[in-house]
Structures are given as C-alpha cells and as structure tokens.
Design brief:
25% helix, 8 helices, Uridine Diphospho-n-acetylenolpyruvylglucosamine Reductase, domain 1, five-stranded antiparallel β-sheet, Uridine Diphospho-n-acetylenolpyruvylglucosamine Reductase, domain 3, Uridine Diphospho-n-acetylenolpyruvylglucosamine Reductase, domain 2, four-stranded mixed β-sheet
Length: 310
C-alpha cells in the first residue's frame, strides 16, 4: 500500500473525485493488469462509461490530480510502490467497439484488443492489419508506442485518431498530428487516444489466415512464448539490433532473483514467477550498463516504466 506521504490526498481520494457514470476502484493491484505480472496498487482506477463520461471527469477533476492512462499492460512495467492518483483504463463496452466504414477503413475504439482484429479481418476479408493482430495489448496503447513488427508499424496504417485532451475536449487528428516515430510518439502527454481509424486493403480470407499463421509460427520459434514478458525490452539503436548487442555483451540468460533475460531472444525480459518490479528494472539496467561497457552504446528502454519505487 502507499505511505501517507506518497498519497496525493490523505483523505479518501474517491470522495473527492467527480460523480461519474463509470467505475472507480480503490487500491487496484497493477500486477493483475500487466503482462509481466508485477506492480503495486493504483490509488484509484477509473473505468469511464464512454467518451462523455471521460470528458466530464477531466473537466471536473481536482486541480493537479495525477492522472495516467494504461492500455493492455503488455509493454508496461509498474513499480512495486504503485501509482499515486488516478489510473484511467478504457475498458468499458463502449471503448471496445469496432466500426466498419464504407471506404475500406475501420474505426477501432482504444480498448479493442489487437488480437480481436483477427475476426474482423477474416470475416470481411480486409488485409493490411495482420501484423497488428500479433502485437499484444490494445489498440490505444499501440498508437502511443507506434508499435510494429514484420516490417510494418502502426504509422503505416493510421488514417486518423480521435483524442481527448486534458481539458476534456475531443477532436479528430491526422496521422501527422500524432508525430509518430520509431517506437515513439510526440503528441502532448495529456492527449488520450479514444479511437483510431485504420486503412485496410481487400484480401482473401485464405491469404489473411496464412499470414496470421506465419506470424504466429515465427513468434513461437524465435521469441519466448507463454512467458511473463513485456515484448522487446529495448529499442533498436539506429542501424543495429538490440538483441545482438545484448548477446555480444554476455547478457543472454542472466538472472536476478525471479527476473531473467531470455536465452531464446535476449531482448526479452522475463518474470520467471516470483520477480518484483525492482528485480526486472534492475536487471534491465544491468544489461544497459554491460552493453555500454562492451559497445559504447546506451540502450533505450522500449518498455514503459511507471509508478513509485518501493
């Protein structure tokens, strides 16, 4: 739990929050919402009913209340001390909608799981988004990190997005406004992605299924599978591969308590069962230091770190 000095309010925070139509949950263990299975409690988790509810919350919340948004937790390391303030999770039925448009585009709300796109692509024979189906997490989080694999990234398939700023105002922005780059975005920190419109291309059900099968097979053969991991831990330096630098530095398979660097793909950090967030973060920093000593290159974390160290 939080120390009183770490809480944003000494009072019951929920009592000071706006009366919303969505749901507030107190002291929610973030380990249940991250693929690594670690993380202390969120002081409050807020699940908005819809965009109107989210807008009302943002417009009427207490001034300077710490607020952050989490997606599917697939690329997230929450520290053991938890997260002060309010964690927003777009997980209601409203934010899991998928809408087919008449121009070979589809609009996905931010809470849609990437894997759920598979059924839509196959049913309506829409190609171009197969790579996204193989990336863990939800659509909203994929935009924030410009997720990608198999030679494509989210930037390549976005037409536009609906965002809500910190003042609770919604607007539609183009892909250029999102300022997406390699595993990153540069739009304002207070923007919350609420839905995204993707371009697709007509394809056959057979081609789509074959591509999905090939991608799954590749991941099973070359990456940790059915393990507690957050995907690629570090970004690839320009013109280089992080895993090669990590292997060259002798870090494949090294451990720290319950944390381990995968031997199958050494850019994957694994919770073998009893790791703490501190174990995982500290092991990652050991890798950064060893790679720097060996190659003079400083790796940059791709996994997002959030919260208070215990």
């Amino acid at each position: 739990m939080f120390n009183k000095s770490e809480k944003w309010f000494k009072q019951n925070l929920v009592e000071l929050l706006p009366k919303v139509q969505g749901t507030y949950k107190k002291d929610v263990l973030m380990s249940k919402y991250t693929w690594l299975g670690v993380g202390g409690p969120a002081e409050v988790m807020y699940i908005p009913k819809d965009e109107q509810d989210l807008s009302f919350f943002l417009k009427t919340k207490p001034y300077n209340l710490p607020v952050c948004v989490v997606g599917g937790g697939s690329n997230l390391l929450v520290r053991d001390g938890g997260i002060a303030g309010v964690v927003i999770k777009l997980d209601s039925k409203y934010f899991r909608q998928i809408i087919l448009n008449n121009d070979n585009t589809i609009t996905c709300f931010a809470g849609v799981k990437n894997i759920e796109l598979k059924k839509i692509l196959l049913k309506y024979e829409l190609g171009g988004l197969e790579f996204l189906c193989s990336i863990p997490g939800v659509v909203g989080g994929s935009i924030k990190t410009n997720a990608g694999c198999f030679g494509k990234s989210v930037k390549d398939v976005i037409v536009s997005a609906t965002i809500m700023n910190g003042d609770g105002e919604a607007k539609t922005v183009s892909v250029d406004d999102l300022m997406l780059s390699y595993r990153n975005s540069y739009f304002p920190d207070d923007w919350i992605i609420t839905s995204i419109t993707f371009s697709t291309i007509p394809s056959s059900r057979e081609k789509i299924q074959n591509l999905l099968d090939d991608q799954k097979q590749y991941r099973m053969q070359s990456q940790p599978y059915n393990e507690r991991t957050a995907g690629s831990t570090f970004k690839n330096p320009e013109g280089l591969k992080a895993w090669e630098l990590i292997k060259k530095s002798g870090c494949c398979g090294i451990t720290l308590n319950g944390a381990k660097i995968s031997e199958k793909h050494c850019n994957f950090l694994i919770n073998t069962g009893n790791a703490t967030a501190a174990d995982l973060e500290n092991l990652g920093e050991i890798v950064v230091e060893r790679v720097k000593q060996t190659t003079s290159i400083t790796l940059e974390w791709e996994v997002k770190k959030m919260g208070i160290a215990k």
